[in-house]
From TrEMBL:
Pathway: Carbohydrate biosynthesis; dTDP-L-rhamnose biosynthesis
GO biological process: dTDP-rhamnose biosynthetic process; polysaccharide biosynthetic process
Gene3D superfamilies (UniProt xref): Jelly Rolls
Protein name (database record): dTDP-4-dehydrorhamnose 3,5-epimerase
Residues passing through the membrane, by range: none
Entry EC no(s): 5.1.3.13
NCBIfam families, per database record: rmlC (TIGR01221)
Family statement: Belongs to the dTDP-4-dehydrorhamnose 3,5-epimerase family.
Region (Disordered): 164-183
Gene Ontology MF: a single term: dTDP-4-dehydrorhamnose 3,5-epimerase activity
CDD domains: cupin_RmlC (cd00438)
Claim: Chloroplast is one of the keywords in the record: no
Organism: Streptomyces aurantiacus
Catalytic activity: dTDP-4-dehydro-6-deoxy-alpha-D-glucose = dTDP-4-dehydro-beta-L-rhamnose
């Protein structure tokens, strides 16, 4: 497994497994504490694993947490997704920058998203399972959502949206969210 920095988002990393394939199929390590530690992250800091299953075209996000934020490892364990990260850390050298990824079950690449970044994805296949390893227990009072179609972000979602939560559909713009943080 190797770790690669994501230039567009300071502190974000891609963890790429080294698959072994033979006539039986394949095997790969999707988490390695030593590799995580090698880039300055504490592998023991992750306290919750979650899984979402989405049907094609579903859009989830853009989500982040207020307060101390939430760092997470994200991997598409089945299917393919278009994944988006937006850096909303005011002190970051990549503040307000965006990065896009295609994550899939073929590569099993894991994306590390630092606390303070918004995250969202769209399912590109009929079924897409996304695995999360999160560094804080969930507190719904800290949930923040930003409009997926905010013109300031101009995210090039690849498919028409087939479904999304009511919360995501009614999410405020980035400008509104940032104004709330300042007040």
């Amino acid at each position: 497994m190797k770790a690669t920095e994501v230039p567009a988002i300071a502190g974000a990393f891609l963890f790429e497994p080294t698959p072994y394939a033979d006539e039986r199929g394949s095997f790969c390590r999707t988490f390695d504490a030593d590799v995580v530690r090698s880039v300055g992250l504490d592998p023991g800091a992750f306290v919750q694993d979650s899984l979402s299953r989405s049907v094609g075209g579903v859009l989830r996000g853009l989500h982040l947490r207020s307060g101390a934020g939430e760092a997470k490892l994200v991997r598409c364990s089945y299917g393919r997704i278009f994944d988006v990260v937006v850096d909303l850390r005011p002190d970051s050298p990549t503040y307000r920058d965006r990065a896009f990824f295609e994550l899939s079950d073929e590569t099993q690449v894991t994306l590390y998203i630092p606390a303070g970044c918004a995250h969202g994805f769209q399912a590109l296949t009929e079924t897409a399972d996304v695995s999360y390893r999160i560094d804080r227990p969930h507190d719904p009072a800290e949930d923040v959502t930003i409009a997926f179609d905010d013109p300031e972000l101009a995210i090039p979602w690849p498919l028409p949206v087939t479904s999304m939560s009511e919360r995501d559909r009614k999410a405020p713009s980035l400008a509104e969210v940032l104004a709330q943080k300042e007040s």
